[in-house]
Amino acid sequence: MIDLCKMQLNKIGIIKKFNVSDDIKRRFLDIGIASNVKIKRVLESYNNNMSAYKIMGSLIAIRNKDTKGIKVVYEKI
Amino acid sequence: MKKYKIALAGNPNVGKSTIFNFLTNKHQHTGNWTGKTVEEASGEYKYHNKIYEVYDLPGTYSLVAHSKEELLTRDLLCFNKEIDLTIVVCNAVNLERSLNLVLQIQEITNNVLVVVNLIDEALKKQIQIDLDKLSKILKVPVIKTSATNNEGLDVLKEKIEYYARFKNMESYKLKYDNKLEKEITKISKNLPSNVKNKKWISLRLLNNDKDIIESLKKYSNYDIKTNKKLLTTLKSSSNNLKNIDIEVLVVSNILKECNKIYTNTVINNKNKYIEKEQKIDKIITSKIFGIPIMLIMLFLIFWLTIVGSNYPSELLSNFLFSLEAPLRNLCQIFPSYISDLLINGVYKTTAWVVGVMLPPMLIFFPLFTIAEDIGLLPRIAFNMDYMFNKCHACGKQCLTMCMGIGCNAVGVTGTRIIDEKRERLLAIITNSFMPCNGRYPVIIAIISMFFIGTTRGIISSIISSLILVLVITLSIIMTFITCSILSKNILKGKKSSFILELPDYRKIKIGKIIITSLLDRTIFVLGRAIVVAMPAGLIIYLITNITYNDVSVLTIISNYLNSIASLIGLDGVILLAFFLGIPANEIVLPIILMTYLGTNSLTDYENLTSLKSILIDNGWTMLTAICFIIFNLFHFPCGTTLFTIKKETNSWYYTFLSFIIPLFIGITLCFIVTTIFKIFCLLF
User: Fold this and answer.
1) Is the confidence at residue B382, as pLDDT, over 80?
2) Which of A21, A36, A50 to mutate to test the interface with B (most CBs of B within 10 A)?
3) Residue B291: its chain A contacts at CB < 8 A?
4) ipTM of this complex > 0.90?
5) Distance CA B205, CA B233 (A)
6) What is the pLDDT along chain A (77 residues), one digit of tens a residue?
7) Looking at the domain that runs over B3-163, which CATH code has it been given?
8) Domain A2-74 is in which class?
9) What is the DSSP annotation of B409-439?
10) Where exactly are the structural domains of chain B?
């Protein structure tokens, strides 16, 4: 398992561990980040503090520090 | 006549406001970024002799409220007993995400109409949706629309008329894990009969949702603390589920259902388009091009505004001032002091404001709307977040700063998209650092007169725009510094999270841009400025005409201010003009001219050359021009903005801070520049 924000760009991962603080948990759940959901990291900001992910068809930007505690495994093709 | 109540709900940025505007013929602001609708808007329309009251709710991803706006949406849908039909607007391009909210809303009401909007974009991206199948699965009517192209909206009106009459239509209901369902049933049984949506409320109570307890008190007049049996059941149910994260379980369940419905109803071939958008995103957010592209865009917007507004501005001013004579003739029916007051006071001030503001606004606002509509603003926020994060502010502040260039009051209201109170206050207090429409035309005029020369041409307009970009950069830098200092003192607190949707790029719709920029922004901002300028003109007229020893009160006060003003590179007249310009920043320069020329009414100038000679004759130097620009950027916000800040923060303290902080920065910067300039002059 690797950290969500350390995923290779344009690879699809499946969220296997979802352990985030309470104040941000609900936000993640709202945008579709939960256990067993497919996610793709598609962009990183130029200073690497943010990443943008494709989740349920939308492109969502999240600060890397906020995604600590979310671990993924790459989808097997 | 029966009045039907219709709620318009949906994720952010799916076109609710466009549908609302069509239905009610109103002009709620629309654009391609999340969080434009920050408060509930309502409007009415009549159709086949029935009245429909429509509520445009702020966009939300779920019914679990985090912010004031989401709470508003949740409470209206959940507790307002009189809503006849809830329209859930979905994004055809991202239907799976939209379904998440549809299923949650179906949990609390049966009377749902699903509108799959942006169907044109979905077709372009080769996404096919089987609407009949979707309707069968969801057990509610589903229609397709392309609101920006006015497609399907007449059908929507028909369907609203038809379905608003029904009560308790059949609806799709989610099924949770058996163990969870069992506990929900136990809790539901203990809720009194007047409480609606027992299953959903039980689930929220089980989740320890404190807001729902407050909402139950407020809307159903029911305090759960008075029901000991319910409290005991809640405790035992929580114990029974203690190893389960209920929230995650529920959401995973909903997401699984969404995915199932989506897979059954949508054929998606949009990968080709995703690749194209990704390529654009990579360039816009790259290390090499990201910030330069942003600055070039800012430069282009200002350059086009400067070049485009030069001639219309002069023509409009000439036209408005040419009306003075006929109006004076018309006013001859009044005594001379009243006609003087009306023409020299009210009319001339208003004409100045319109003449200076309207042409740049007519160019700037459409250009800004284009940047907003194609989806560029959230990308700018993505690029700028690093800097905001460094100074403990929220990246979304970048969006509200952009809004502030149009109008600071609008920028302050826009800060509602920032969830954390501390970060929102940072954005509010520093919003006036961005020069609004009332200020930057004056800055452009000063730049042209003192830094480039008053001759017109492409080169001079390019240099003007570049200097203006530098001026805005100074504002941005000061915003970062101020946020950083405030975060370590009076607005101390931890950094919050930052999640922002980067919307799909959308094609420019010229018609929509004209309507949005003309009606929503230009007329709104101009109308407000006129309303403020008219009484301001009256007051200015009075203080210039009340004299003591044949000297006007205005001149006396400005003479007193001279000694303080000289320390910051200005003079008493300029300083007084800024204070008198509190109602509207546009009237600062006219007041200065009026005082210099000793006239008792606002003065028109023939061109920039004559204006420059008036200023130079009254002691203006390069230093005065620099300090004027700095003070124009950093002084107190205008009256409307201060009023908005008081309304938004509900605090005199933060309103005072918003007044004093920019003023302090302005005075300090001007003092530093003046001192350096004077030392330099002494040495060389």
Assistant:
1) yes
2) A50
3) 46
4) yes
5) 11
6) 999 999 999 899 999 998 888 878 888 988 889 888 889 999 998 888 899 999 988 889 999 989 989 999 998 76
7) 3.40.50.300
8) mainly beta
9) HHHHHHGGG--SHHHHHHHHHHGGGS--TTT
10) 3-163, 178-268, 290-683
